[in-house]
Design brief:
Elements lengths: L1 H63 L6 H29 L4 E5 H15 L5 E5 L4 E5 H17 L7 E9 L3 E8 L31 H11 L3 E6 L5 E8 L10
Parallel strand pairs: 2-4
Antiparallel strand pairs: 1-3, 4-5, 5-7, 6-7
Helix pairs in contact: 1-2, 2-5, 3-4, 4-5
Length: 260
């Protein structure tokens, strides 16, 4: 009897030690991510500020020289302000994802996809959007966060459709015993994907400005939402061959999350 008790105690202690090592590793990962995030914020917020200052200096010189036509400089200043505002919106959303209280429920992904695509078309009326959404898509998760996930992925499809090309994408998936596998495939310009994890890091831009690069936060927000759902996300792409994003969402709620 004593031997059994000692064995149980040893196993419990070993389990606690493994859990402690896992927590320490996760803490180190979060600290490293925090350092990268802080550095990225500093760099990316300073860039539009430097642009605004540079355009303002040019504007002042033209005004001092009696050149009243300053429309080009004003347009550039407004563009830099818009980029900074967009980055701030992305940073706020990224922060809110980490702190959001999850409401676990059945989510009609087909409805969310149609809604997100409609809003994308309204926000960018110049974009020609051709989308195919598989009927009957459903998963378990937080509806609000999953809508943000689709918004970010669809906006990436728009940005990287290619010069003068329309947005062409398909949303589909299938279910297994553990949850739902969602796929979003586009026919855009694709990318050279050397490190599969790189696109999901904050402030990563794998395209140049001419190709439509955004603030580098879209896929980071997607990854943060998937992590909150204890799910998985991956990306397959080649230059000129479009992109496929795969998201797996567990049916079971993460630990500590109430199932509605």
């Amino acid at each position: 009897m004593s031997a059994l008790i000692n064995q149980d105690g040893d196993e419990a202690l070993a389990a606690l030690e493994r859990r402690n090592r896992d927590l320490e590793a996760e803490l180190m990962r979060l600290r490293a991510q925090q350092d990268v995030f802080a550095s990225g914020i500093s760099h990316d917020l300073r860039a539009p500020l430097r642009a605004i200052d540079g355009f303002a200096v040019q504007l002042q010189k033209r005004l001092d020289a009696g050149e009243l036509d300053a429309g080009e400089q004003v347009t550039k200043i407004r563009g830099a302000v818009a980029r900074m505002a967009g980055l701030l919106d992305s940073l706020i959303l990224y922060s809110r994802v980490a702190r959001a209280e999850l409401k676990w429920q059945d989510v009609d992904l087909g409805y969310l996809a149609d809604w997100a695509l409609m809003d994308l078309g309204t926000a960018h009326p110049e974009a020609v959007i051709e989308a195919e959404v598989q009927p009957g898509l459903s998963a378990r998760g937080d509806e609000r966060l999953l809508r943000h996930l689709l918004d970010a992925l669809f906006d990436n499809c728009r940005r990287f459709a290619g010069p003068g090309a329309g947005v062409n994408l398909r949303v589909d998936g299938e279910r297994d015993a553990e949850g739902f596998h969602l796929r979003i495939t586009d026919r855009g310009i694709g990318m050279d994907l050397r490190d599969p994890a790189q696109p999901f890091a904050p402030f990563q831009r794998l395209h140049g400005a001419v190709q439509g690069a955004g603030d580098g936060m879209g896929l980071a927000i997607v990854d943060a939402i998937v992590q909150r759902h204890s799910g998985r996300v991956s990306l397959d792409s080649r230059p000129g061959e479009g992109c496929t994003v795969r998201v797996f969402l567990h049916d079971a709620a993460p630990a500590g999350v109430s199932d509605l």
